[in-house]
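Obj: model holo form, ligand = nicotinamide-adenine-dinucleotide.
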Amino acid sequence: MRMDDLVHFCAPARLIIAGGARSQLPALMQRLGYRHGVLVTDTFFTRHTPWVREYVDAAAQLGIATTVYDGGLPDPTTTLCDAATAEVRTQLRGTVPDHVIALGGGSNIDLAKALCLTLPTGAPVKSFVGVLPDGSRPLPLIAVPTTAGTGSEATPGAILLDPENATKIAVMDNSLRPQVALVDPELTYTCPPRVTADAGIDALTHALESFVTLDSSAFDREGSVDPGYSGRSAVTMLFAREAIRLCAAYLERAYRDGSDHEARHGMAYASIYAALSYGSAGLNAVHGIAYAVAGITHKSHGSTNAVMLPYVVDALRATRTAELAEVAQLFGIDGPPAQAAARLPAMLRDLVARLDIPADLNAFGITEAQLDGMTCDALAVARLRKAFPVADGAAAYARIVRRAWEGRIGD
Ligand SMILES: NC(=O)c1ccc[n+]([C@@H]2O[C@H](COP(=O)([O-])OP(=O)(O)OC[C@H]3O[C@@H](n4cnc5c(N)ncnc54)[C@H](O)[C@@H]3O)[C@@H](O)[C@H]2O)c1
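Output (holo structure tokens):
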């Protein structure tokens, strides 16, 4: 408990976690009264796994029809979303489905989330950016993640790339949180090492960043009575701690050996726990700057977070000493709080390097001439900048970016 907290905790309506849980889905859908859905996925799952066919056939036997869309792509764009809307609506011939199922990583889940808004009317997805009207009722989403990382199955937002200006835009509302988040760790067994590492460090970033973010009592909710994100609280920190402990134990193991089932399960839990933290607390500078890095490099979401994480943590040593010492301890670093917290950034940078992700912005392909523009782009994401718990966010961002490029940690 923290006396000052203003808790506004939101989660998926149902969270199911179990090895093999996917087999329960058809009966659950019947129990929830659904009759006709759209399953959003990509061709890896339709061509190389039996999971789509197994679900569609089992659901059909229970009287539930499913239209499959397998055009999902990594980092979906607004253009892809609008094309998918048109294609699926043509297939549906004027009927409106009563649910959408997402099968895949964060990319497919985000595309499906956006389709929950666009499928009923065919409106372009960009018309939903910003605050949704009161009482909005997107189609119910059932999210089945196949990576252990993004936690999109528990969050209120979908991130899409806008090809017109190469920025990421978000459609965001608590009504977009899934009705069912079904986490079946067995679905991650086929993840290649690169996807495992990038998604896994994304989960660690979500947990750590939300653990040290602005307090709920200081968070600017912009007058909303139903904010998607509202700062850290005792509730979110509970989940963040456990997510960090699980990442410390299992992230590298899952990367080194994808057949290590205990590590796969550990990371599946880490991912959803991290999402139950950041999905209400929100994020700040790592993601804010990572979006700008992705705008230039087009590298994966997880790897752009990874390269920034150690340097942002380094910048918080004075304001979040106790919390960083706690994180350090979860990674096996003991000692007095200030010393343990001081050792954490370098430890994280070593972890990033061991996951074969470049550990500074220079090695990541950013030139010195791009640093100022990148800092400006990062600062422009106001909701993330405002949640960074330091007094002068602009100066802090500039310093972090410079030090991340030089690979400099410590004093
Ligand atoms: N909405 C949110 O809250 C949120 C949060 C974080 C990230 N994101 C978004 O999530 C996306 C990244 O998602 P991701 O890291 O899960 O990767 P991804 O969904 O982009 O998938 C990457 C690749 O891995 C493949 N893949 C996924 N699962 C697999 C499996 N089990 N076996 C084999 N291949 C598999 C996919 O087919 C794809 O080719 C980014 O677009 C990011 O913006 C959204």
